[in-house]
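A favour, since you know our structure tokens better than I do. Could you add the entry underneath, on a fresh line?
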Amino acid sequence: MSSDDPITDFARRSVDVEGVVKTVYVAGCGPAVVLMPEMPGISPDVLRLARWVRDAGFTVFVPSLFGVDGAYPTAEDGTEIVRRACVSAEFRAFAGGGTSPVTAWLRGLAVLSTEVEYGRHDIDDLVNG
């Protein structure tokens, strides 16, 4: 296992979707891609994928939903994160058109990312950095 990732090549933004603020890492220029990290969070491996997406010509949005951003998780960290989230229910809601706090927030982020993509807004108009 390598060392943790300081995430210095992404802009760290605080994105507000209907009053709920979450950290989102943004990089690149091009069509928008929202990369949803799996549990236990934004690991260096997730960031490696985000960089491939960015380097392929996309703007990548990586929301911080749980865990320690940029860190390789420990078994203890993973256990705690799993206890706090019911991921299968969230993904079923997201895929099936249902709703939950996380799926509603992710849908809002997707809308914001396309508004940036199509030039309706600048990223700095939508987020607080």
